[in-house]
Amino acid sequence: MTAENITRVILNNHIPSGIPKPSDFTVETVSAPTAEILKDNELLVRPLYLSCDPYMRNRIKGNGGFYVPDIQAKAAITGHGVCVVEASSSNKFAPGDHITTGLFDWAQKAIVPAEGRRKVSETDRVSLVDYIGVLGMPSFTAYVGTVVLGNPKKGETLLVTSAAGAVGQMVVQLAKARGLRVVAVAGSDDKIEFVKTLGADVAFNYKTCGNFEHAIHQAAPEGIDIYFDNVGGEFLDAALMNMRHHGRVIPCGMASQYNIAADDEYRMENFSQVIIRKLTIIGFLVMEYYPTASFTEFIAEVSTLYACGKITYKIDEIVGLENGPAALIDVFDGNSVGRRIIRV
Amino acid sequence: MTAENITRVILNNHIPSGIPKPSDFTVETVSAPTAEILKDNELLVRPLYLSCDPYMRNRIKGNGGFYVPDIQAKAAITGHGVCVVEASSSNKFAPGDHITTGLFDWAQKAIVPAEGRRKVSETDRVSLVDYIGVLGMPSFTAYVGTVVLGNPKKGETLLVTSAAGAVGQMVVQLAKARGLRVVAVAGSDDKIEFVKTLGADVAFNYKTCGNFEHAIHQAAPEGIDIYFDNVGGEFLDAALMNMRHHGRVIPCGMASQYNIAADDEYRMENFSQVIIRKLTIIGFLVMEYYPTASFTEFIAEVSTLYACGKITYKIDEIVGLENGPAALIDVFDGNSVGRRIIRV
């Protein structure tokens, strides 16, 4: 029997700054790993869907300073996904199982640790792709930040940036479902149209709005109670000047800083507003909420709302792992609406 | 009957930046206000003690951007104190009562609103000066930040700046009483000696320690669980790089920035650590905790510990309101150990 060939995507070298280019990645053909080389508690998996997420930019800088380990130079890209198990040395998973949670290689087949994975199944209400979509990590991130930590109260105003992205689209809908007024910010007219269809009360394009502080004030003269921050940098500073007293800031991502060299990162001017306005800022890592009661509540609420059509979730699907680098670069460059996934 | 003359201290003009000078204030002699001009719910009071606090620097900049109203140019300095009521148009207070809480004019007699004042009495355990000392606003500030918001756990490490000040000295002792390891930072060798007598496990002088980030790491190689921040600026940035995951930052003051012009204020580099280290930052205003269950608990705990000698509180007393400007300037310049008060 001859060895099976598979496609794999590797990072050529760390990319400290700038928008990555196609030449920063290699799509290569290699021999597939086989069940014979499984060690204890490992799985041979075949990814069905892999995701391209903004936070991955920080994992290819080579600075090791992020909350998820760096992707190594000359090694496969790793990210979230939904896979089918082809072989298992774990008593928790069997061939044919579908799994998600944790990182998977961008390869048509890969060996991964069984630890921390979660078995998922297709039902009449939920398809496999939904586990990387409406029930996926970014969606749960939105839930933890908005519902668990944000302490939202009916009638309050929530501001969210990257509102058309994988996290933002769910923040908008969860906040609206709780009776909040939602101000959504995104970077193109298409995205603005999209977030309005999700229920955002006001939406504006940060690339054309002019002064951020003024634009937020125009959109929310009453001030902001919760700022769900996906971008950091100058916009965060502007948001601080618009927070109501006792407001909550949920710093979830810093997309505005991901492509910037360390020395050029934005330096914050308005931190004193935390004292003046008595703000609470809560950093969190969504992985620490798997599994918790919050995760159970998330699955129950969101799968129900989704099944009855009260929540939508936009997936921006690209077909073929060989198109992975371009798909990922698009996300880093802001050229994607919804959650960008690769159908492997 | 001829009018009674009193001493009063006024601010000549707003002082946007720099350490204030004696010539920025006027000690003047004016006619005393009298009971005849009391409106409804006002008190004619005679201050016994007035305090000089670092936060007052932000109230003489004329920018109106702080959490306590600006002191007006050509008007009396206002601050915390303990007063005796000489006349009252409020049914809550009678002549001879002692009161505290809220702001009082720096004048030997003044008319103030009765609203928000609190009656206090001398007992065999507590003298009047203690209401501006161990039971005063800075001490309660330490309690709210450390105990109510900091969520301290035995064995954790707490870092506090301005540790020899009115707030810091109580933070050190409250944390030690709860079994925390305490790293105390102050700006002179005298202050360092003082905070060690309070129980600080390690203490260092920020003026001579060299690189802040390194100095904190040397003092707490295990990392910081709670940073009680009285200084802001560069030291806060350095502390963020030393926080343990899930650490709490209690931004209480920004003494490093108070004498600096707005354009020269420090710009923060390390805010991304809030996400990376999953930190919680909680701004608060102590006045919002009067009266609450926390205040009752504070009085009960601290007055008991104080009466049995398990807590001390250093007061740095200056006699005579005419010495008020110099006493205040000392505090802004860091030349005071403990809480600086004026015995009027």
Automatic annotation (TrEMBL), chains A, B:
Keywords: Oxidoreductase. It comes from the Eukaryota. InterPro entries: ADH-like_C, ADH_N_2, ER, GroES-like_sf, MDR_fam, NAD(P)-bd_dom_sf. GO terms for molecular function: oxidoreductase activity, acting on the CH-CH group of donors, NAD or NADP as acceptor. Residues 23-342 form the Enoyl reductase (ER) domain. PANTHER family: PROSTAGLANDIN REDUCTASE (PTHR43205), PROSTAGLANDIN REDUCTASE 1 (PTHR43205:SF7). This is NAD(P)-binding protein. It comes from Linderina pennispora.
